[in-house]
Design goal:
The chain is mostly beta strands. It is about 10% helix and about 60% strand. It has one helix spanning about 1-15, and strands at about 30-35, 40-45, 50-60, 70, 75, 80-90, 100-115, 125-140, 150-160, 170-180. Strands 1-2-3-6-7-8-9-10 form an 8-stranded antiparallel barrel. The chain is elongated.
Length: about 180
Amino acid sequence: MRKLLLTVLLALSGWLMTSNVAQAQYNNWSIGARIGEPSGVNIRKYFGNNHAFDLNIGTYGGIYGTTRSYRSGDYKTVGLTIQGHFLWHTALTKSESLRAYYGFGGQINNRKYYPDYLSGQPIDFVKGNISLGGSGIGGLEYFPVNKPYSIFLEAGAYLEVLPAPFFLNLSTGIGARYNF
């Protein structure tokens, strides 16, 4: 318990004493939490002044309802997703504390699928239904001056390729990242 308290106090003091301007944060890593579709851990690596790679690992299917028509059946549970995007970003303000970004990438999902042909059976779902598709995202990120964190808001879409071509799902999120 003491080690945990010491670690939290050291992290908090480092956060309070860090003096970064927004521009310096674009060549660093950041890690945070994202609430939305998907919800979970968000990791970002900034490259130069206008590129980044964004990785989301978390739940899929919870925000827009756990039951959704899919192929010849339904999704009825929350699953796991891994989503990655290559991003372009640009400053919207002179101080560069507000930035817009957009990007494209892919998504892998694992979710229980309840096909109609198994309805009424003792086991009425297919476990481990893996799906792959492309995704696009756009958003805004705010870097408070002299703080090592950023806050973001984004929206996009996922278009499945396998096993259900053209299955479309919205991808929205809000979150915060610690930049180091």
